[in-house]
Design brief:
alpha/beta; 37% helix; 17% strand; eight-stranded mixed β-sheet; two-stranded antiparallel ribbon
Amino acid sequence: MMHTSLSAQLDEALQANPAMIGLSSGLEPLTFSLASTRVAGAARPAASGAPTLVMLHGWQDNLASFHALVPYLPSEWGLLLFDWPGHGLSEHKPGDYYYPFYDYLDDLHQVLHQQRFSGPLILVGHSLGGLVASCYAAAFPDRIAALVMIEALGPMAEPAQQITNRLAKSLDQRLKQRQKRQRYFDSAFQALQLRASINKVAAEPLLPLVARGLMETPQGITWRHDPHLRGDALYRMSPAHCESIIRAIHCPALAIRGTDGYPALRSQDAQQRMHGFRQLQVVDLPGTHHCHLQQPQQAASWVTDFVTKIQTRT
């Protein structure tokens, strides 16, 4: 019965106004015009002087990744969410474009410059969103009041001597991916089951995210996100670059790790990174890499307590 109900809910969501899919109550859809593409988003205005949380989703996800957290956040706080280019309802970037990491920073910069904020600005990022948020907080320390990283701890890095292997592997991968055909599903529920299996998350909390990430075509149901996103990066910064960025983050930071999340966040390298932050709190949340979907009330509670303490100190 649960499968039948979820399948019906998913099918119903796909028939709704696409701009509203995955939006929690109180959020209004909006669109941003960037240099080369249009980006779909949603917002809730902040009460006078209250903080605004800019919520940045992960790789191949969309803004509905935060659907379950919104109801547990203080109603007077402002919220700004958007689908990264190539994700969700946002347009794909033109040409044979592969979404290098540093361009996400440019996308965020353009979005923020189209909004006005009366109170403190808090960056909340999951996975890729957390990597981008950490770099942005380092680049603009006077603009960001606090940083929340969910299943992230600064930018990704790897030893410099691995660069040639990365270049060769990634370039060969691009050749193969250009020959791949688009995948279609017999039903939306089939896509939901696949994501649940891959992410190790129950199907129900994933439903808003999956619904916003699907589209119906004459050939069948398929993912909205740009197929170019599947390619590995040609370049990844060195540990020295990563260390410089982390040491440039002046604001308080909160890292939320899933107990069964990304193993690198519990490595010796992660322990060394933690010492680079000026003000870092680390908490563990039961769940996998999408632990904020599995435990939204607890995740929102930690974010609320963290931001409230910052406001109290200032």
